[in-house]
Amino acid sequence: DNDLTDNVAGWALAIGNDLTFQNSYVTGNDFTGSGFGLVLQGIDGIVVDNVLGQTNNFVGALGGLALSNIDGATVSNLDLGRVERTYLSLGGVTNSTISDISVNGANSYGISVSGGGGNEISGVDVSWDGVSPSGEGVRIYASPDNSTTNVTAGNRRYGIRVFGVSPNNTFQCGSFVDNYYGTGQSTLDGILR
Predict the structure, then answer these.
(1) First to last CA, the chain
(2) How far apart are CA 153 and CA 61, in angstroms?
(3) What dihedral do alpha carbons 180, 178, 85, 124 form, nearest 10°?
């Protein structure tokens, strides 16, 4: 059990390429008032699979997991426990696969993608469990060529929101129910199927 309160990041890794962070437990940490609980930066080809952390405290933290400036990442089977603001943030992340994630909490964003592109997001549930709609299930900002498949987003302001210069994003087989807006796009060059 670690006390990581009021830090810019709780645990931060910024090392070489092709790291595997698999079958790991990040538990019992207090990230109250910190940035993101776990920050992974500049690690091309990283695999984050089956990382569990249900007993962490993210109250007042910016979010759970942040990936920054990474190409070719794989994130799957992630369970961080209840995260208050942003569950998973991808900043400058390209050509990566995000799958099999069920967001717990995250009143701001379930998954936020900004400044990257060419990512595949599939089999995720980014619904909000609060009393009234809050935040965005999947937020794509200034990020072209992303694909979302089998995304469930309920009880959100936006199920999926795409804005900024974000051409050629595709959305297939999604379920967007009980939101203020199922999808929202400020550009008309994305594809809905």
Answers:
(1) 46
(2) 22
(3) -120
Torsion, CA 156, CA 114, CA 76, CA 43, rounded to 10:
-160
Describe the strand order of the beta sheet including 9-13 as a list of residue ranges. 9-13, 36-41, 63-68, 86-91, 109-114, 136-141, 158-163, 181-185
Instruction: Report the predicted TM-score, pTM, of the whole model to 2 decimal places.
Output: 0.85
Residue type, 74: T
What distance in Å separates the CA atoms of residue 109 and residue 112, rounded to the nearest whole number? 6
Which of 56, 57, 5, 78 shows the shortest CA–CA distance to 35? Answer: 5
> Residues 103-139, buried b or exposed e (16+ Cβ, 10 A)?
bbbbbbbbbbbbebbbbebbebbbbbeeeebbbbbbb
Beta-bridged to residue 13, according to DSSP, are 40
Distance of CA 92 to the CA centre of its chain: 13
User: Is the model's pLDDT at 156 over the cut of 70?
Assistant: yes
At residue 97, φ and ψ (nearest 5 deg) are: -120, 125
How far is C-alpha 113 from the geometric centre of its chain's CA atoms? Answer: 7
Mean pLDDT comparison of 9-18, 53-62, 89-98, 167-176, highest-scoring range: 89-98
- pLDDT digit string (tens) for 27-66? 677 777 777 878 888 888 888 887 766 667 777 778 888 8
- Which residues have CB under 8 Å from 188's CB, separation 6+? none
* Mean pLDDT score of the chain: 81
